[in-house]
Structures are given as C-alpha cells and as structure tokens.
Design goal:
This protein has eight helices and three strands; from the N terminus they run αααααααββαβ. By secondary structure, it is mostly helical. It has two domains: 9-210, Cation efflux protein transmembrane domain (Alpha-lytic protease prodomain-like); 220-288, Alpha-Beta Plaits, CATH 3.30.70. Strands 1-2-3 form a three-stranded mixed β-sheet. α1 runs antiparallel to α2 (44-70), α2 runs antiparallel to α3 (84-113) and α3 runs antiparallel to α6 (183-210).
Length: 297
C-alpha cells in the first residue's frame, strides 16, 4: 500500500486566510455603517441588512477558524488531520444562509402588512456604499471560491449581501419616486428567494462530502477503466473515492496482478495514472494475485 499527500494545500489555505481577513474587516465596518444608517433613516430594510451582515461576519469568522484548523498536522487520533473542519464550517454557513433567507422572507411579509415611512435619500446613500463594498469583496473571493467549499460559502455570503444592498437601493428609489411603500417588502422577498437555490447547492455538496459520496468531478467508471488499462493489471475491484476537503480527494482500490507483472511496477503505474488523469492526491492501492477472493463494487 502507498499514500501521497498534497504539497500546496497549506499555501492555498494561507492565501484564503488573507482574503477572508480582508473581507471580514470590510464587512465589520459595513455593519456599523448600515446599522447607523438604518437608525437615522428609519429604514427597516437597512437594519435587516445590517443584521444579515452580522450573520455573515460570524460565518466569515467561522471560515477563518476552519482554515486555521485545516493547517494543523495529522496525529494518531486524527490521521487525516483537520481537513473536515472546513466542510463542517461550509455546512454551518449553508444552514445560516438558509436561516437568513427565511428571515428576509418573514420581514418582507411583515412589511407588506405594515408599510413604514423612510428617509429614502440616506437609505440610498448607505445602501450604495454597501453594494460597492460587497461587490469588491465578491471579486476578491471569486477565484478562491472555485477551489474551496469554505471559500464558496464566504463568496455566496457576500453575493447575498450585494443582492440585499441592491434591493434596498431599488426599493428606496421606487418609494422616493412613486410613494409606493410596498416596493421595500417585495424586493426583500425577491432577495430571499434568490439566496435559497445557491444555498441549497452548497448544502447538498457539503452533506455529500460528509457522507463520503463520490466527488462530482470524478467519473468512477472512467477511473476504473483507466486503472484497468494499466499494464500488468488483470482486474480492479473495491474501488472507492471520497473527498477529504475541497480539492483533496482520496481513493482506495484493489488491483489484481496479471501475467509477469511485478508488485512495485504496477503500484507505481496505478499511482501515476490516478494522479495524472484524475488529480487524486491520497491513494491506497492493495495489490493482489489472481485467484484472491473479490468483492466487486
């Protein structure tokens, strides 16, 4: 048996930490601005958005904590280290985002029942600053979001914030130009509905990792075929692939020797095949002679 380990995971974690720290600082400053603006303008939308930002700040802090733990080395009690902390943080963030979207929908219903007069000028100004900050944060996180569930959770959070700020601006402009107070709750409801599909996708992926399902970017049939084509491999069985953390997959497989193939040659070839073609970094290969009892999966 043999195992290989990623060498660039910690470097990626450090880069992600710097991004999250910058976004967390911007979000914290924005919470103070929107909270103050909501009080001065009498805007429930701004106050709700400040509460939304407060929840996201907690999510970002949780993501930073997860990245910190993921850098800790493996030990006898946790032989894979703390990779799964990132997935747990992503799962928590998905649940929080679901709660936030449901809260927005509840607030929208309340405002439909009891519209409130607001100072639209101040509301637009504060929401515009919020939109600019959130878009800048989203651009800052966008690249990392494609490689990490945890960073994707943070990315979705700032996108949700940007949508909320845009909704506040639209509502304020409509109320200012037409006097139609129902614009605020209707736009808030649209924001709540827009957040849910993305959050559901994140939640489903995080749960899939925790259940050790086959990664979505790994074709199990193609992987089995590729290992079967390795010179000296007469059969493949008990093939399993799962995810440790974002971008770090693990695999175990039983390979049956054929002909005059040697144990070491087949082992090396299988490892290279899997790493080269499927980017699986943790590989365990059990080499067997023909005639061994097999459990085909």
């Amino acid at each position: 048996m043999s195992g290989s380990h990623p060498h660039d995971h910690r470097q990626a974690c450090r880069g992600n930490q710097r991004r999250l720290q910058a976004v967390l600082l911007l979000t914290t400053l924005l919470i103070g601005l929107e909270g103050t603006g909501g009080i001065l303008s009498g805007s429930l939308a701004l106050m709700a958005d400040a509460g939304h930002l407060l929840t996201d700040a907690a999510g970002l802090a949780l993501a930073l904590l997860a990245l910190h733990f993921s850098e800790r080395p493996a030990n006898p009690e946790r032989t894979y280290g703390y990779y799964r902390v990132e997935i747990l943080a992503a799962l928590t963030n998905a649940v929080v985002l679901t709660g936030v979207s449901l809260f927005i929908l509840y607030e929208a219903w309340q405002r439909l029942r009891q519209p409130t007069e607001i100072r639209t000028g101040l509301m637009v100004a504060v929401a515009a600053v919020g939109l600019a900050v959130n878009l800048a944060s989203a651009l800052f996180l966008r690249r990392a979001a494609g490689h990490s569930l945890n960073m994707r959770a943070a990315y979705l959070e700032v996108l949700a914030d940007a949508l909320a700020s845009l909704g506040v601006i639209v509502a304020a402009v409509v109320v200012r130009t037409t006097g139609w107070l129902y614009a605020d709750p209707l736009v808030s409801a649209l924001i709540g509905f827009a957040i849910l599909p993305r959050t559901w996708a994140l939640l489903r992926e995080a749960v899939g990792v925790l259940l050790e399902g086959t990664p979505s970017d790994v074709n199990l049939a193609a992987l089995r075929e590729a290992i079967g084509r390795v010179p000296g491999v007469a059969g493949v069985h008990d093939l399993h692939v799962w995810t440790l953390t974002s971008g770090v997959h693990a695999m175990s497989v039983h390979a049956v020797l054929g002909g005059d193939a040697t144990h070491q040659a087949v082992l090396a070839e299988v490892q290279q095949c899997v790493a080269r073609g499927f980017r699986i970094t943790h590989v365990t290969v059990q080499i067997e002679s023909q005639g061994c009892t097999e459990t085909h999966l």
